[in-house]
Write a structure and sequence with these properties.
By secondary structure, this protein is mainly α. The chain contains 17 helices and 5 strands. Strands 1, 2, 3, 4 and 5 form a 5-stranded mixed β-sheet that branches. The chain is flat. The chain starts with a helix and ends with a helix.
């Protein structure tokens, strides 16, 4: 065996021993069963169908076992160094979305054992006009394994979203001996169950860490559940510039797609109306730009992923356009619109890849490196895709992002 090959095998083994996957497998040995020989190479498997007759405890165990296997498979794939970080994190967001969708179905089934559906919807329609929004890194497909995912539950009382109901469905719903409940209370109970199903300790598999959207307190926008009408009213009439700008990193994750599309439509309109002035955008970015952290973080530190995301969002809003979900996709759109020169776009894309790889390394390891130097060392040891280009150093990546953000703010 050549020394370089032995070095690569040794470094991969050392990384594996200190990964989230190792910790999960040590605690939940049943996750070994069903793992592919090349974990993460295939797309995520579909969640298990609910067993009939429905039993909440059984359904929760099935969900957590599936979720655990998907998390371990993706974590091991990241350790292999084969898939690109953007691919791993995109698939991770897809797994989270599928888990939330299944948890919504489970919540509705559980509640229907005691309550009438408030809109008298048949079982096949599930919760009905409810959507779950992802906020922040999860919305931009940059949420990592050990990162709390921001979820926001939104519902609508509008008949247009409930859809038509047959007389037979209505008669059947009225005939059952169950309690009546208003829609807000029903969704509140469902949301609580979803967060419990995904976040509580469970012997079948690891939990997801969930949280309200970053920076949003109950005093600002209400609890983690709200109606579409109140949501829109807040952002149209009460939100300040920084709060409204956070909507650039919001996307429907699970639940009813029609309601999710309506949220996106309204958010896009509000953003383009409010941020039509470049100077206002520059002032907002100046207020929001990252500040030094006590511990180094490739996302939250100056010149990190957060600053890069805000820069790209500002470039697009200043042009009066809004498209794309991820930072990489928006970078390409900005370049196509001539908002970045080819060399600027290439530099920012390279910076994005280096920062995203460091963010993923921090997530996959079971502990965070204490500083940028230690991150650089971990990246140097990390297995690489054959033929892949060398990554920028973190210092160079942060300098590129900071310089571009400085120029946007200065020229605003």
């Amino acid at each position: 065996m050549e020394p370089i090959e032995a070095y690569e095998i040794l470094s991969r083994w050392l990384l594996t021993q200190n990964s989230c996957a190792a910790a999960w497998l040590a605690r939940y040995p049943q996750l070994f069963m069903g793992l592919d020989k090349a974990p993460g190479k295939q797309g995520p498997k579909e969640p298990p169908a609910l067993r009939e007759p429905f039993d909440e405890e059984t359904a929760q165990a099935d969900l957590r076992l599936w979720l655990g296997r998907e998390l371990v498979a993706l974590n091991m794939a990241a350790l292999s160094g084969r898939p690109r970080p953007v691919s791993i994190l995109d698939r991770l967001a897809g797994v989270v979305g599928r888990a939330v969708d299944l948890a919504l179905v489970m919540s509705d089934r559980s509640l229907r054992e005691r309550f009438h559906h408030p809109l008298l919807l048949p079982l096949s329609r599930g919760l009905g006009p409810v959507t779950v929004l992802a906020w922040g890194p999860l919305a931009g497909r940059e949420a990592a394994f050990n990162q709390a995912v921001g979820l926001f539950f939104l519902f609508s009382r509008s008949p247009g979203f409930a859809g038509p109901r047959s007389e037979e469905d209505l008669d059947q719903a009225r005939s059952q001996d169950k309690q009546m409940i208003i829609l807000r209370e029903y969704v509140l109970k469902a949301a609580g169950r979803v967060l419990t199903f995904l976040g509580m300790e469970h012997p079948a598999g690891p939990a997801l860490s969930t949280a309200p959207p970053d920076g949003w307190s109950q005093a600002l926008i209400g609890p983690q559940i709200n109606s579409l009408a109140r949501f829109t009213d807040f952002f149209q009439h009460k939100a300040d510039q920084a709060q409204l700008f956070s909507l650039t990193r919001m996307t429907p994750l699970a639940g009813q797609k029609r309601l999710g599309h309506e949220v996106v439509k309204q958010v896009k309109r509000m953003l383009l109306e409010r941020f039509s002035d470049r100077a206002l955008i520059a002032a907002t970015l100046s207020r929001l730009r990252a500040r030094p952290q006590e511990r180094f973080d490739p996302a939250a530190n100056p010149g990190g992923l957060d600053d890069l995301g805000r820069l790209v969002d500002g470039l697009l809003l200043a042009k009066g356009v809004w498209t794309g979900r991820t930072t990489g996709g928006r970078l390409k759109k900005a370049a196509a619109l001539g908002l970045l020169s080819p060399s600027q776009a290439a530099d920012l894309a390279a910076a994005h890849e280096a920062l995203l790889q460091a963010h993923l390394v921090c997530s996959v390891l079971d502990q965070r490196p204490p500083g940028q130097t230690q991150y650089e060392a971990a990246l140097a040891l990390w297995p690489r895709r054959k033929g892949g280009a060398d990554l920028l150093s973190l210092a160079a990546a942060r300098e590129i992002v900071s310089h571009a953000l400085d120029r946007f703010i200065r020229e605003g």
